[in-house]
Amino acid sequence: MAKTELIIFDLDGTLVDSESVYQMGWATVLKDFGHNVEVADFELMRGKGRHHNNQYIKSYLGTDILVQEARNLREEYYFNALNNNEVQLMPGALELIEEALVQGITLAVATSSYRDRGKATLDQFGLLKYFTYQVFGDEAEKMSLDLPMTQLAHKLYTQLAEIGHADEGTQAIVKLWWD
């Protein structure tokens, strides 16, 4: 059996339990705009990119300007929750990371979270130091269900190639994502 050389983690919902904070943030912000939306309604946004989620919020607010204003308020809500320890590390995440390092496995994090929020979240839990590679959503050209992974795969492959970790298997995986 081949030795695992690299593990790529997602951030939200994998390393940290942040999804409920995002959902509550949107519900709170939309309430301030006069819309009573159940937290559960935001399940439609889970794991989607910024473009998709902005369109969903626009269905309530009507204009891109109001969507951006709401997004800024939701970001503020998230950072307040993060600073008040309302975002939690997922059970077992740190232990898994530490064991992977003991086994000599290289770690990466690839997330649709934008760099400022992603790094702040990783820093909050002292996780940033564990990841040799970090790829954040604002490094992708367009946020959608199908494109970010190709963007992230290309960036990660390029980084791996620079240090000699991009073997034929990695090339094949990246080629599958590109095709």
Question: What is the assigned CATH homologous superfamily of the largest domain?
Answer: HAD superfamily/HAD-like
Give the overall pLDDT as a whole number.
Answer: 81
How large, in whole angstroms, is the Cα Rg? 18 Å
Total domains: 2
Low-confidence stretches: 141-147, 166-179
Give the spatial strand order of the biggest sheet. 1-4-5
CATH fold naming of the largest domain:
Rossmann fold
CATH class assignment of the largest domain: Alpha Beta
Shape: elongated
Measured by DSSP, the beta-strand proportion falls in: 5-15%
Amount of helix = 40-55%
Q: What is the H-and-E element order? A: EEHHHEHEHEHH
CATH level-two architecture of the largest domain: 3-Layer(aba) Sandwich
Could you say which structural class the secondary elements and strand pairing correspond to? Answer: mainly alpha
How many distinct beta strands? 5
> How many distinct helices?
7
The major sheet is characterized as: 3 strands, parallel
